[in-house]
């Protein structure tokens, strides 16, 4: 086990309970007991362990559109730690206090200035840390092979459920919850304001907290907030009444995490990159050619992830039985702009540096064509999304500012968020073992919302969290062409 810190944090314990006694509380002393059986037994307000000297951080043209989005909700299941629960809570709180000192933006609040600019005030206002227990639930209740995600349970693994990011004017910009299950397994969940962080920054902070907890030094972050330079564009909210989400958060959905093995993804990639008439080339031969730097055809190669997304686009469109043949389908993919800008900005840039790359095709076009064609469409859209496209999108937003229209108004959109490249397993060992699985809360979920996670094995496998209406999900599960690529992760067998 790695060495773990044991310093005293700056916290305000809820008067009802202290973290040290939380695991010994009777049921009557619990702060919150929802139907899931996940019970909050202590709530602390945690401040950075050193005063911030950071000036106000102005929300950028990539931050401001996110004010209408829910806070990001992501977390990790871990094996049972070999230490008492009271010590675990104390350890997590003390390391969190130090992590907030390293990332003071997350301990601040949003403030609207007289000129209507919205800034992050790094005022050390602090965050909430909740300790919860689930004495009737074990890891097997959450990670069920070949089944829907039990959303009635997972929603209570996170605080601030469905809080809209504009509320960061009045509420913490981040909140944290550790939930201890009956079998000793632990879930660590983070909720973070989406106008303050994108997925890259979210997982940078998760890594920072884990590194401090296990006694390592975290990587420094870039707080310069110069993504597009200075902008005079503002969003105005008269009377301080913030925006609502742009989709129906209560529409019925089924949610599944589909696992695609490294072998399955290699097969899809080989098909996507196969030349017309090249059916005799098997995946192994193609793979050697595609990665040969002397091979001119290796340039413009369709990636593994693009190939997987194309398969999903085809299958979900088939499963949406009510779409007319001439309806336009849209595949939206979150694009990290950090490395696409010229000059590139730091990979450690802390804030939102994302845009949405859009690819369209009609239902009949997708029905007539194969994986190679659909993957080629996605590849072309993403290849064209360079510095010029990013700056044009930013200029268009500045000319007509508004919140990002998340959702699926016409029932034909797929929105792929998160990334299989995020360090969800790598770098997030808090000192007692590698995480077992990633799960998210109910934030920003609607028909066609999908999130990519790396496979736990780190071998190139990918997990895709898929949200669809019940009838569409049922049709997708009956689609043999799609399901032939889906398997169960080895750690769930």
TrEMBL record:
Q: Which domain of life is it from?
A: Eukaryota
Signal peptide as annotated in the record: none
To which species is this protein native?
A: Urochloa decumbens
Q: Which UniProt keywords apply?
A: Transferase
InterPro entries, alphabetized: CAT-like_dom_sf, Sec_Metabolite_Acyltrans
**One MF term in GO for this entry?**
acyltransferase activity, transferring groups other than amino-acyl groups
Supply the name of the protein: Acetyltransferase
């Amino acid at each position: 086990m790695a060495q773990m810190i044991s310093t005293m944090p700056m916290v305000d314990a809820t008067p009802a309970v202290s973290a040290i006694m939380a695991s010994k509380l009777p049921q009557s002393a619990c702060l919150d007991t929802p139907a899931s059986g996940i019970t909050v037994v202590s709530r602390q307000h945690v401040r950075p362990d050193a005063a911030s000297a950071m000036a106000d951080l102005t929300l950028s043209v990539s931050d401001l559109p996110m004010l209408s989005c829910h806070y990001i909700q992501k977390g990790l299941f871990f094996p049972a730690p070999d230490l008492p629960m009271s010590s675990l809570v104390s350890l997590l709180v003390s390391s969190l206090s130090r992590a907030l000192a390293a990332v003071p933006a997350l301990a601040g609040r949003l403030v609207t200035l007289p000129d209507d600019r919205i800034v992050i005030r790094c005022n050390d206002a602090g965050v909430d840390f909740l300790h919860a227990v689930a004495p009737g639930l074990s890891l097997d209740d959450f990670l069920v092979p070949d089944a829907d995600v039990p959303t009635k349970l997972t929603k209570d693994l996170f605080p601030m459920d469905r809080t809209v990011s504009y509320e960061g004017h009045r509420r913490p910009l981040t909140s944290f919850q550790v939930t201890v299950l009956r079998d000793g397994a632990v879930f660590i969940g983070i909720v973070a304001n989406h106008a303050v962080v994108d997925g890259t920054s979210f997982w940078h902070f998760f890594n920072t907290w884990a590194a401090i907890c296990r006694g390592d030094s975290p990587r420094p972050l870039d707080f310069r907030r110069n993504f597009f330079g200075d902008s005079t564009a503002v969003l105005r909210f008269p009377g301080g009444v913030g925006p609502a989400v742009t989709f129906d958060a209560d529409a019925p959905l089924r949610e599944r995490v589909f696992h695609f093995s490294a072998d399955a993804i290699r097969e899809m990639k080989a098909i996507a990159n196969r030349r017309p008439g090249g059916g005799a080339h098997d995946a192994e031969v193609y793979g050697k050619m595609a990665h040969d730097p002397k091979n001119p055809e290796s340039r413009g190669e369709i990636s593994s992830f693009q190939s997987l997304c194309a398969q999903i686009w085809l299958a979900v469109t088939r499963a949406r039985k009510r779409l007319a043949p001439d309806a336009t389908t849209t595949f939206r993919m979150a694009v990290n702009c950090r490395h696409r800008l010229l000059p590139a900005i730091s990979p450690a840039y802390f804030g939102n540096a994302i845009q949405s790359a859009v690819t369209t095709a009609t239902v009949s076009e997708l029905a007539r064509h194969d994986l190679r064609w659909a993957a080629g469409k996605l590849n072309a859209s993403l290849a064209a999304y360079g510095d010029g496209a990013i700056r044009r999108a930013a200029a268009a937003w500045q000319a007509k500012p508004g919140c990002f229209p998340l959702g699926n108004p016409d029932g034909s959109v797929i929105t792929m968020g998160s990334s299989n490249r995020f360090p969800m397993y790598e770098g997030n060992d808090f000192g007692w073992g590698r995480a077992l699985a990633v799960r998210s809360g109910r934030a920003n979920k609607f028909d066609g919302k999908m999130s990519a996670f790396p496979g736990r094995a780190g071998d190139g496998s990918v997990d895709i969290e898929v949200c669809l209406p019940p009838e569409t999900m049922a049709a997708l599960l009956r689609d043999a062409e799609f399901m032939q690529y889906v398997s169960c992760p080895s750690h769930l067998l």
